[in-house]
Sequence to fold (306 residues):
Amino acid sequence: MSSKKLGSIVGGWLAPHPPHLVYGENPPQNEPKSRGGWENLRWAYEACRSKLNEQKPDVILVHSPHWQTVVGHHVLSVPRLDGLSVDPIFPHLFRYKFGMNVDCELANEIFLEGKSEGLTMKKMENPDFRVDYGTIVTLHMMNPNWDIPVVAISANNSPYFYDDHVAQNEMEALGHATRRAIEKTGRRAVLAASVTLSHLHFPKEPNQELPEDMTREHIFSQAQYEWDMKVIEMLKRGDIESYEKCLPQFMSETFAEVKAGSLTWMLAAMNKPKIPAKFHGYGTVIGTGNAVMEWDLAGSREANHV
Ligand SMILES: [Fe+2]
Fold:
């Protein structure tokens, strides 16, 4: 391994996973069919698709709140996984036949590096494992061709049991472990934090006959909208310090899904870059606030001739 070129993270994406995005796109893998909808978010992902086409990374790593593990952090570690993933909340929108190649060498290195950080780690080696819809929606929206290997990491649900600082420290340690694993294995990697921002939502679909009725789609509350804009502005400025300061309040007032730790993990893995995040789009899904944003680390290194 020492003869290998040091790997690096070429980019990171805030890449939310409402199943509605896949439903609105009507890919052949998804059984339910729609008349479209949520284009502002779906089209925001086009920037990601063309960037990945240019960058041709070796691997995409995704941290999803919907692969919840009670004990420790689990890493997908089966070379090939196929199956049908059904969203438990929206089975009428998302029944998706998935197939993915997993970068098991990198997964193993994350497992080892996580352990060396003192984290409880486990490799998920069940060949019949049904991958969660959060992981799948994010990966589909980023790369619908599925021609780039992936590594998926579970969300340990300690944020929901412990003090925010405990969860933050764990996720930062996992981020550092992930970065070292990428460097050691020589990968050019893209990261994805599969999370929505504000997460209060309507208790039921506003139009059950036509879920993609865009006349009924709007933010759950003005306060929630203002929070999302504040957070997006901080990330656009590259002001991660202010973002981290307001994070506990943001999470408690908007039930923000970032509480699952995905964005904390990604920012830590990227060494909390001070570069402005590129904003590609914002949209609501049954009232929740979602943004597609990019940290172009490779582009910024090139610009700085590093
Ligand atoms: Fe979610």
User: Anything to note?
Assistant: Residues 17, 65-66, 134, 196, 257 surround fe (ii) ion (CB under 6 Å). The chain is about 40% helix and 25% strand. The two ends are 24 Å apart (CA to CA).
